[in-house]
C-alpha cells in the first residue's frame, strides 16, 4: 500500500533543505525560554512515570532529542527525512535515531512514558490528526505524557488553516479544537501555553504548547 501523499511531500521537502534547516535551528535553538520551560516540565512529569523512555517524533536534526537526554530521559528521535536523520546522527552520535512516520509508529503498545511532537504535526492534514493522536495514545503507558507544539489559532470555526510554509504544506491549528481531538483520543489536558507572536515573526502566528496525560484505564 502506498503511503499518504503528504508524507512523501514532507519527506522530499525536508530532504532537499536539510542542511539549510539545520543551520536555522542551530542559530535559534535555546533562545525561547517558554519553549525550554515546557520541555523542563515535560521531563519532570515523565520522570514520575515508568518507563522514562521518550520518543521525539519529527525530531529533525536531533537537537531537542539530545536536550531531553540531558534532562534525564531515555530519549530517541524519529523522523521521516533520511537527510535530517543523517545530520542528527552526525551531530549527536550518542542518541538513537530511526526513520518512521507518526501515522504508523514502529513501537510496541504502551512502551513509552512520554511523546514529544514539537512542530511536527503541522504538516499533517487536519482530517488525519485523529489517526496520529490515536498512535500517540497507543504507544504511551497509562499516565504517560504528551507535549505538542504547533502554530496556534484562537478561531475555533475549524481545526486548521493552511499557510505558505517554505518546505511543505502546513497548517495553523485551533488550540481548542486540537485539545478536543486529544480528549477523544484518551488524553486529559494538564496545561497549555500560548505565546504571543514575536515582533520579528514572519507570519505573526502564536505558538501553542499542549501538555497532556494519557488517561488511566
TrEMBL record:
It comes from the Bacteria. Keywords: Methyltransferase, Transferase. Pfam families: Methyltransf_25. GO terms for biological process: methylation. It comes from Glycomyces lechevalierae. PANTHER family: METHYLTRANSFERASE (PTHR43591), RHODANESE DOMAIN-CONTAINING PROTEIN (PTHR43591:SF110). SUPFAM superfamilies: S-adenosyl-L-methionine-dependent methyltransferases. This is SAM-dependent methyltransferase. Residues 54-144 form the Methyltransferase domain. The keyword Transferase applies. GO terms for molecular function: methyltransferase activity. CDD domains: AdoMet_MTases (cd02440). Coiled coil: none annotated.
Amino acid at each position: 500500500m502506498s503511503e499518504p501523499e503528504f508524507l512523501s511531500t514532507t519527506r522530499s521537502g525536508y530532504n532537499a533543505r536539510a542542511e539549510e534547516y539545520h543551520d536555522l535551528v542551530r542559530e535559534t535553538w535555546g533562545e525561547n525560554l517558554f519553549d525550554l520551560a515546557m520541555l523542563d516540565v515535560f521531563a519532570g512529569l515523565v520522570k514520575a512515570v515508568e518507563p522514562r523512555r521518550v520518543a521525539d517524533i519529527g525530531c529533525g536534526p536531533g537537537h531537542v532529542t539530545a536536550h531531553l537526554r540531558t534532562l534525564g530521559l531515555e530519549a530517541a528521535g524519529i523522523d521521516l527525512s533520511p537527510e535530517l536523520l543523517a545530520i542528527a546522527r552526525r551531530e549527536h552520535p550518542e542518541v538513537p535515531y530511526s526513520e518512521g512516520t507518526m501515522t504508523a509508529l514502529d513501537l510496541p503498545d504502551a512502551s513509552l512514558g512520554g511523546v514529544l511532537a514539537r512542530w511536527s504535526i503541522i504538516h499533517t492534514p487536519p482530517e488525519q490528526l485523529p489517526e496520529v493522536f490515536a498512535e500517540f495514545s497507543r504507544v504511551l503507558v497509562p499516565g504517560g505524557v504528551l507535549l505538542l507544539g504547533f502554530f496556534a489559532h484562537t478561531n475555533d470555526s475549524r481545526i486548521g488553516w493552511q499557510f505558505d510554509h517554505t518546505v511543505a504544506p502546513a497548517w495553523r491549528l485551533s488550540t481548542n479544537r486540537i485539545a478536543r481531538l486529544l480528549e477523544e483520543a484518551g488524553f486529559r489536558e494538564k496545561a497549555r501555553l500560548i505565546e504571543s507572536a514575536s515582533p520579528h515573526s514572519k507570519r505573526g502566528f502564536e505558538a501553542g504548547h499542549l501538555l497532556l496525560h494519557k488517561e488511566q484505564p
